[in-house]
Amino acid sequence: MDFVLRKATLEDRPAISILIAESVRGLSRDDYSDEQIESAIKTAVFGVDTVLITDGTYFVAEVDDQLIGCGGWSKRKTLFGGDQFTERAPEELDPRHEPAKIRAFFVHPQWARRGVGKTLLTRCESDARAHGFTSLEMMATLPGMKMYQAFGYMVGKQVIYKMTDGVTIELVRMNKQIPSP
Which value, in Å, is the radius of gyration of the alpha carbons in the chain? Predict the structure, then answer.
């Protein structure tokens, strides 16, 4: 492993925001149009969620103080979206009956397919399990869906989400039972 994984801090927000835009612009072109990509970045569908950072459930991967990946899990009901996203549900989940959320995974294009996403996902699954969760769910992007399927996530309902500027984007609900240690 050529990178370090650590919990994100509030000071990381500007760098995470840049990483998200670079990741989406570099890795989503096969699945989304330029208009969809730019709209999703602008409307905070793809954006920093400060609650994940303050909850201590968001991680960054870095090399030489440069962020190359980020992702987290949540004990809250919000399924996706950054700070400015209007459809937020900050209530905490009950791990006995509700799945933890896998949230906001992005990898720099130069680090794609080099284990960054897998390392982040493994950490998130382990942490969610340690907090009593037995299942996970997410709203995946089309390019992200391929990675999540490779790690046992099941494809659920496809959603056409209409952003605040009227542009639509296809997302996919996915879920997984957390394997026992």
Answer: 15
pLDDT in tens, 146-163: 999 999 999 999 999 999
Of 85, 73, 78, nearest to 178 by C-alpha is 73
CATH code, domain carrying 11: 3.40.630.30
Residue 168 is assigned to a structural domain of this protein? no
Q: Is the pTM of this model over 0.85?
A: yes
Query: What's the domain range around 20?
Result: 4-134
Mean pLDDT score of the chain: 93
